[in-house]
From TrEMBL:
GO terms for biological process: methylation. Its EC number is 2.1.1.-. GO terms for cellular component: ribosome. Belongs to the methyltransferase superfamily. PrmA family. It catalyses: L-lysyl-[protein] + 3 S-adenosyl-L-methionine = N(6),N(6),N(6)-trimethyl-L-lysyl-[protein] + 3 S-adenosyl-L-homocysteine + 3 H(+). The gene is prmA. Methylates ribosomal protein L11. This is Ribosomal protein L11 methyltransferase. Keywords: Cytoplasm, Methyltransferase, Ribonucleoprotein, Ribosomal protein, S-adenosyl-L-methionine, Transferase.
Amino acid sequence: MDYKEVTILTNHEVEPFIADILDELGANGVVIEDSAEVSKGRVDSYGEIYDLNPADYPETGIRIRCYFSAFDYKESLLEDIKQAVLQLHDIPVTDFAVSAADIKDDDWENEWKRHFHAFRASETFTVVPSWETYDAAPDETVITLDPGMAFGTGDHATTSMCLKLIEKYVKPGRSVIDVGTGSGILSIAAHKLGASPIRAVDLDKVAVRVAEENFEINGCAAHIAVDTGNLLAGETEKRDVILANILAHIVDLMIDDSYKLLNENGIFVTSGIITEKEDMIVTHLEKAGYRILEISRDSGWIAVAAVKEVA
Ligand SMILES: C[S@@+](CC[C@H](N)C(=O)[O-])C[C@H]1O[C@@H](n2cnc3c(N)ncnc32)[C@H](O)[C@@H]1O
């Protein structure tokens, strides 16, 4: 079947919402290229800094590439995307352009996989696509991933900030629940650090299937229970750590439940929160009884680690 590659150029503020919009409209695989990445400089597994090729990135804002099968693509699609973006509440859309091109080679999957390569996502975790071979250095812990249609390759600021907080706060033998597991990346990281037992849930059945496959690839399927689930609804087992990288207004809905479900001195690691929503989330966390341990910031997003201290 032929595929269409749809390219969108827009400003950073739209980024948190674009994947959901494209998903609703039937996109297969979404790749986000951020102009801010070029100025960061990357460090490879041997500590050498390398530059990204500016030609691969937009000059300003973000470029989103996504893929639609001929079956899902219709003439009105570009206009539908534009209208959905322009109707976002309270989000300034200062730049917007959308275009489509044919992909003739029947190989859209490889087209978007072209953009995903092994990279160091945190101090110890290196994410390696399942189709690449990689020689890990002794200080690296490899997470092998095929994210398929699910979110979570690790190169998004929210995921890498979560990985860094997990490195710090998840200890061997701690019980974990990963809410909105996506590709399963955070659960795999927790497992590699010795956490147990681990449960992963996602509202999206496709994400649950992808996470299961990634648990298999990483040899941890027997150690992570994965299921569909809506936030913490129906969860009764107390946990030492709760992970949730979802959007701020959704995280907000689970703050009180997370506090109830945590053991004493348990830790809530959460991200998916744009800086504009920091005050709202921090105020709610403190009201629920949490003490904020730290807040990380990257590319307009924050991640929070908070502890349930019981006097
Ligand atoms: C931003 S992705 C995070 C994926 C991965 N945990 C990571 O850190 O990269 C958010 C995930 O939350 C899931 N999600 C959204 N709303 C949810 C809900 N109410 N309950 C459970 N999962 C939800 C989405 O399907 C998506 O897979």
